[in-house]
Amino acid sequence: MILDLFAGPGGWSHALTVLGVRDVGLEWDEWACRTRAAAGQLTLRTDVAMYPTWPWVGRTRGLIASPPCQAWSMAGKRLGLVDQPLVHQAVEDLAAARDTRERLLAACRDKRSLQAAEPMRYLYALNMAGEPEWVAMEEVPDVLPLWKQYAAVLRRWGFSVWTGILNAADYGVPQTRRRAILLASRVRTAQPPPPTHAQIAEPESLFGPGRARWVSMAEALGWGATDRPVPTVCAGGGPGGGPEPFPSGSRKTLSDARDRGTWTPRTEGIVLQSRREGAGWAARHGTRDNRPADRPAPTFTAEAHRWSWALRSNNQANATVRSIEEPAGTLFFGHRANECTWVAEPATVQPEDATPPSAPEPIRITAREAGLLQTFPADYPWAGNKGQQFSQIGNAVPPLLAAHLLAPHLRVPLQPDDFTLAA
């Protein structure tokens, strides 16, 4: 079997499903487990640090691990960096069959830090049986020194190992998400998968076709029919499913198909279609004609010429802002300042005699949109309220990146159409 430690909502698992294989995930978070169950993934709800290793010995082909990254991530307090020497000590001890976790945990500033050492406990037990055949691990870039320590141990045990930083955008993910990766194998030379995409499209050469241009948010969200897509506009609060994860900001969304409809390009311009056009919509756009659900809103071709949508990564002054025609920045959630919103920016080319209207309000990204930008399917069954869903999405491994990493180990080709990004 394939063992997936800290399995989360199923980034690795969905990639394996696409490749025709299944894993068994160990995960503690209730809502991630519910998401996995709804997606049909095998899961044990348990604490990875407490679960015994003996049930896996003699039956594990591959081991996957993405320990929680909050203690190491730049999005948090990064106390994991303070605890780094303790984590390195734990890895060294576990690789020599010395379990000093209790003592080291007591000294940690962030109790999650030591979870990054847990995969070594499983690897040691499996190695005694000549397992696993391969290993794949992922974390935030600051964990790369720890992966190098793992690599040194695995090489002593007969593995070929590669460690380094990969950009998810280089593999077709519509997000410039950089991650520290460890790949190890007993039966093949470990190396990173060849990139399929580049920031600028490459021409065909004597060696074959060049890499395609990075996938934009517009392409991933299915907004590629026009240069400047216009979102659905409607009034009212967000859909059900629990409170907003962040109480600040607008509660409108660009594309919540459940109760907001979608924009549709027409030959005469860009038409907004909405299932709800309440008083707020009318007040903003100078009409009292609240059309029924089956009729389109008025055409706003002038608006389309004057504004272009972009994604702002958080509420801070130095937040990353990316045009819809680019990949997103790294998506992370779980803190009020990390709320991602769509914002309108002046179009590059403005009509000479036009005075741009007031910019539309920022619009909250939906869980569905965030999932698509992580390369999960549009109908992926995220469980929990909005805060719990966003937390799962932000911490997940992009399935498309995971598939590129896993396909060589499984000796399965990854087909270009295996992942359909557009909604």
From TrEMBL:
GO BP annotations listed: methylation
Instruction: Extract the ranges annotated as region (Disordered).
Output: 236-262, 276-297
* UniProt keyword list: Methyltransferase, Restriction system, S-adenosyl-L-methionine, Transferase
Catalytic residue positions: C69
Supply the InterPro entries for this chain.
C5-Methyltransferase, C5_MeTfrase, SAM-dependent_MTases_sf
User: Which SUPFAM superfamilies does this UniProt record tie to the protein?
Assistant: S-adenosyl-L-methionine-dependent methyltransferases (SSF53335)
Q: Name one GO molecular function term.
A: DNA (cytosine-5-)-methyltransferase activity
Top-level EC class: transferase
Enzyme Commission number(s) from the entry: 2.1.1.37
Please name the Gene3D superfamilies in this protein's record. Answer: DNA Methylase, subunit A, domain 2, Vaccinia Virus protein VP39
**Is Transferase tagged as a keyword?**
yes
Record-stated family: Belongs to the class I-like SAM-binding methyltransferase superfamily. C5-methyltransferase family.
Q: What is this protein called?
A: DNA (cytosine-5-)-methyltransferase
UniProt lineage: Bacteria, Bacillati, Actinomycetota, Actinomycetes, Kitasatosporales
